[in-house]
Amino acid sequence: MEGHKNNIFIRFRDYMTTKYKAPEECKLLMAERNLITMVKAQVMLIIMGIYGLISILVANKGNYISSIPRFIYFGEYIVFGLLCIFSSAKLKKITFARSTVKMIPTYFLFTYLMAYPMFILYYEKNTFNAMVVYACVTVNFPVFFDISPVVYTPVVIIASIALLPHIKEEYNMFIVMDSVIFVLILYFLSFKRWATEKDNFLHHRSEHEYKENIENELRLAQVVQQSFFKHNETIYEDWAISYYNKPMAGVSGDFLDIYSTGNELEGIGIFDVSGHGIASGLVTMLVKNIIFQEFNNGKSDKLKSIIDRINIRYIKEKGNIENYLTGILTRLDGNKVEFINAGHSMPIYYSAKNDSADYLNDDNTAFGAIGLPDLPTNFISHTVEMERGDELIFFTDGATEATNSDGDDFGKERLLKSIFRNADRPLTTQVNCIVSDILTFIGSEPRKDDITIIILKKK
């Protein structure tokens, strides 16, 4: 049994199969390329056939009996050329044909082109011209077409056997040896071209499958994240909330959270994790859980203590993950909204009484973000007392830093004007109009960051 496995012919066969056996999809792809090239090649051959017929008519001047074989040969170029073009067009339209069927025009073209030097050799009795045409066909065909060595090798061998004895008769053994070396080089090039095409196909297929897997994982991650951050459409007793959260692509590095008991709204949070992609999306789920636990467990604690504990826990639990986050955590108490800004953009306050909107002032002594272990923090508490119809608008920097084709940012001023212009509309309409203004501004320019907007309104 061991001797059978070590048989040199078995090993050679296994090597050739592994190296040169192309998958059906690969051969179909090569066949499709051949069919496209076929039309161009056949047009040139038809022109050559027409030129050959005209040349015979002009050169013989009525003595055409002796030129009948040439008439037939050049006529074949036209007939076979049209046949190949017709069959190529038909085969291109067939979706489910196997590669062996779609390769027929290619192999047929190669075979009847190799018949041309044989015609010159046996009918014209011109060994040199036969050698030239033979060399041209055998060299150029593998350059322009993907042809299997299984077909290429026997056709070239048959033509070589027909040609070599005549070379030996008219020339010498050195020319014969040169011809043999030439044929061996052609075999090598043919095998190499086929193996390269197969390897390229497998490489691209592997890349495509990898990309497809990544896209599937992104879609799954997006579904999981959206499910994880899904909020019930609760109608709160004293407050109304509307929001927009749209990732740049796939999963989002932005997230918002709503803290409530029954229909009593207790607080909201808006956060932006550094970076993009799956890593940022996974971090949002980690830190969302931390924030939710600390907020609900610390209802009797100061808001600054809660945000400090969130920072400590996140640094500890994230390990070597480099992502940090900025954000705002708010807590509601009657008409008062207390919030702490951790390195985030300050919210916009709209006063219904004064019909005015402006950014709340930041405390210049506050600094730091969540999740940066080597940097100190000083989180400062802010309190806003709100009246009926007043609004607080929270947003991530994806809204203000959205750029158009000229490289201009939407900016804080445009955002402020958009909020003021739509303040008299229903809450959901306000959010939609603000987002519409941002998207209209950037036009067809691809988005560079996630966009999240929350409007909190006092009833």
Radius of gyration: 38 Å
Q: Tally the helices: what do you get?
A: 14
- Shape descriptor: elongated
Uncertain residue segments: none
Mind describing the biggest β-sheet?
5 strands, antiparallel
Distance between the termini: 87 Å
Helix and strand sequence: HHHHHHHHHEEEHHEEEEEEHHHE
Instruction: Note the quaternary state here.
Output: single chain
| Secondary structure tally: strands | 10
Structural class: alpha+beta
**What strand line-up does the widest sheet have?**
1-10-9-6-7
Helix content: 55-70%
Summarize model confidence as the mean pLDDT.
Answer: 87
Per DSSP, what share of the residues sits in E-state strands of 2 or more residues?
5-15%
Topology:
Layout: H1 2-5, H2 8-20, H3 24-60, H4 68-93, H5 99-102, H6 104-124, H7 127-144, H8 149-170, H9 173-228, E1 239-246, E2 254-261, E3 264-273, H10 278-297, H11 303-318, E4 325-333, E5 336-342, E6 348-351, E7 356-359, E8 381-385, E9 391-395, H12 397-400, H13 411-421, H14 427-442, E10 451-458
Antiparallel strand pairs: 1-10, 2-3, 3-4, 4-5, 5-8, 6-7, 6-9, 9-10
Question: How would you describe what is shown here?
Answer:
The chain contains 14 helices and ten strands. Helix 7 (127-144) runs antiparallel to helix 8 and helix 10 crosses helix 11. The protein has helices at 2-5, 8-20, 24-60, 68-93, 99-102, 104-124, 127-144, 149-170, 173-228, 278-297, 303-318, 397-400, 411-421, 427-442; strands at 239-246, 254-261, 264-273, 325-333, 336-342, 348-351, 356-359, 381-385, 391-395, 451-458. The N and C termini lie far apart (87 Å). The strands form two sheets. It has a five-stranded antiparallel beta sheet with strand order 1-10-9-6-7. A five-stranded antiparallel beta sheet has the order 2-3-4-5-8, covered by helices on one side. The mean pLDDT is 87.
